[in-house]
């Protein structure tokens, strides 16, 4: 075991070897192989290329050198292309802070039985008058940056539960194709995290409709681990034990405290509220309003096909089929 693996338990070391192809004897060579590729992309400013940083990208791509480098390049390219998103990229930024305090995201105290961190989002908590969807995305990315410092989570990964209860059609209308693309690029294509499952509960019909927009832009591999549970929490409990879930998800623990993770990041500044104008943070139009493609944007702006609505009425068992994986 090298010093780069010092934070891993014996069980996680074995998991890294078996599932991620991590070999302590070749670890430094693997890292150097990725670092040597940096010269091939002079158009990107690689602000970090230290061993520990590159290692998280290798783990995210199971030690496939080129895939790890491509993810590393996309990580920095995404930040170059969306500079305004990463200005004041800290927990005390007013927009990020408001989103964090409303539980975007939340994190449960207990890991699941695979050692994965369970993130939770309560979609209806979004207060459109106080912060934007971009602020929510920034808060999630900032939180992942903090969590991915833990080598155990680099190996074991994350699980996400999104509760869509009381999420209104008006709120859903803000999930535009350009906003969805920004999120997909930031989370699927540009961040070194392993997502073992994304679980939707209590989703309304118009959340199903959003899949007609985003599905074509998800990788084939990325379509395997979104589970649509609807109101069937028993199906959720088959995958995540109720003993570690709060009562909102039919679990045995008390209701989730939305400020739990925010207090961890903000510490003594949690209660220091400052005024924030929701319009004070705005990304350049060319960034937020990128078209997915001329044909897809036209399709997404049209009326939802009746056959889509018909599919939404299929039984719960069919809705449980996995749709998305962010591994």
UniProtKB/TrEMBL annotation:
Source species: Galeopterus variegatus
CRAL-TRIO domain span: 96-257
Taxonomic lineage: Eukaryota, Metazoa, Chordata, Craniata, Vertebrata
PROSITE patterns registered for this protein in UniProt: CRAL_TRIO
Job of this protein: Required for normal morphology of late endosomes and/or lysosomes in neurons. Binds phosphatidylinositol 3,5-bisphosphate (PtdIns(3,5)P2).
Alphabetized UniProt keyword annotations: Cytoplasmic vesicle, Endosome, Golgi apparatus, Lipid-binding, Membrane
Pfam family, one: CRAL_TRIO_N
Entry membrane topology: Peripheral membrane protein
Region feature (Disordered): 287-327
SUPFAM superfamilies: CRAL/TRIO domain (SSF52087), CRAL/TRIO N-terminal domain (SSF46938)
Compartments, as annotated in UniProt: Cytoplasmic vesicle, Clathrin-coated vesicle; Early endosome membrane; Golgi apparatus, trans-Golgi network membrane
Main location, first listed in the record: cytoplasm
CDD domains from the UniProt entry: SEC14
Name the record gives this protein: Clavesin-2
